[in-house]
Amino acid sequence: MLSTRFTDLVGCSVPIQQAGMGDLANPRLAAAVADAGGLGMVSVYGYPPDLIADVLDRLRHQTAGCIGANFIMLFVDPDQAHECVAAAASKVRVVDFFHTDPDAVLVEIVHNHGALACWQVGSKEEAEAAVAAGCDFIIAQGIEAGGHVRGRIGLLALLSEVLDTVDVPVLAAGGIGTGRAMAAALAAGADGVRVGTRFVVAEEAEAHPTYINALIEARPQDTVYTEAFGVGWPPPDAPHRLLRSCLQAAESFQGEIVGEGMDYYTGERFPIERFHPIGVTKSYTGAIEAMSLWAGESVGGVKKIESAADIVRDMAGEAERLLRRWR
Ligand SMILES: Cc1cc2nc3c(=O)[nH]c(=O)nc-3n(C[C@H](O)[C@H](O)[C@H](O)COP(=O)(O)O)c2cc1C
Hints:
By secondary structure, this protein is α/β, with parallel strands linked by helices. 35% of the residues lie in helices and 19% in strands. The protein has helices spanning 5-10, 27-35, 49-62, 81-89, 104-112, 124-132, 155-163, 179-187, 197-200, 209-217, 244-252, 308-324; strands at residues 16-18, 39-43, 66-71, 94-98, 116-121, 137-141, 147-148, 170-173, 192-195, 223-226, 240-243, 257-262, 269-273, 285-286. It has an 8-stranded parallel β-sheet. The protein has a 3-stranded antiparallel β-sheet with strand order 7-11-10. It is globular, with a radius of gyration of 18 Å. Flavin mononucleotide binds at residues 19-22, 24, 43, 70, 72, 98, 120, 141, 144-147, 173-176, 194-197, 200, 279, 294, 296, 298. Residues 19-22, 24, 43, 70, 72, 98, 120, 141, 144-147, 173-176, 194-197, 200, 279, 294, 296, 298 line the site of flavin mononucleotide.
């Protein structure tokens, strides 16, 4: 088994963190990843503290494995921010932050409630800030990543800078969808990998079939790094990576509402504006092909629908075999 400083710290057996991915990273997916030995994550931003506590409490009873909660603080009510983070930290092993500057107060709340804190960063400077804020580990995200992208350079170049700068365990994120890519990140010195796109097609993620098929068909060169899907995201010029086909479909779509979505936890339905960034689950209706179909360059590793456990086993097994060649 691949044991690293990350697996020792968190207590999981496989150095794979499944990315929090809005509604696509639901408790079923997180529990399946955790059962398979990885760190399973759910995104809990946008909800009040009692709902966060309830969701995570139920998740805790679904798996004995390692679970965590993901926050993008831009979408957390500032009046409830500390309570939300405290509610999460009291239920899970890891509380994970992305897309705002590292914040020592939030990290302290996480620690005070018995969890580990981590921050996904896109530069050496941000990595230093996360460590100064007290994070227990960090995630270095390269420009190859799917979803919103904080990194501005390739993952290996970023890892080289970050690993030379910080002492805490570092996970690598962006473009890692195979055991081969995972082995490369570990060989470069990362303590594990964070994987998003490949888990979107996991049976448990409940992505929309049109989205799943588009990912299976796509190759790495079919993704695009853009700021186009900026509606409702503060600030709107936040770069992200998704399938070029959905950008083209949105550009040529006639009208401003592309379809309807549904909140995973509340069941509330809402209209989706053209260029609004969302995670397209099977409950969405309308012009799915013109919605934000997030994809990293890791999409080359997406070949079929499979269980989260098979994805974890496949990636970790291949990485281990490749790394053994050099021992
Ligand atoms: C569908 C999708 C949704 C994402 N949503 C989030 C999110 O809600 N929170 C977050 O911290 N990162 C999010 N990310 C980014 C991931 O944390 C991670 O950086 C990325 O998936 C790594 O690249 P990969 O997709 O090539 O594996 C998302 C990524 C994808 C693909």
